[in-house]
Amino acid sequence: MLLLHCGIKAMQSMQEENENKKILTNDMATFIVLNTASIQIIPTTVIAIRNSLGSQNPTAIIVPVWIATICAAIAGIIATKIFIKLGK
Fold this sequence. Notes:
By secondary structure, this protein is mainly alpha-helical. The protein has helices spanning 2-17, 26-37, 44-52, 62-87.
């Protein structure tokens, strides 16, 4: 809940600096993409599910999850930057 509150506060402060209130700034768009990619440090829910289903090594997914979320974040940032350049 604290992270949600911090994200909303960050977006509100960016909106205060925004000259055209009806259009997202480039920074706001990048923030939304990074927030949506949500890099997982420790995927506790999936580990708990794997553990409850009797997995031999429920934490074996940590490194693949890190790789997948980092790739998603990088792909999102690249796509955002491309769309920003195309929009100018």
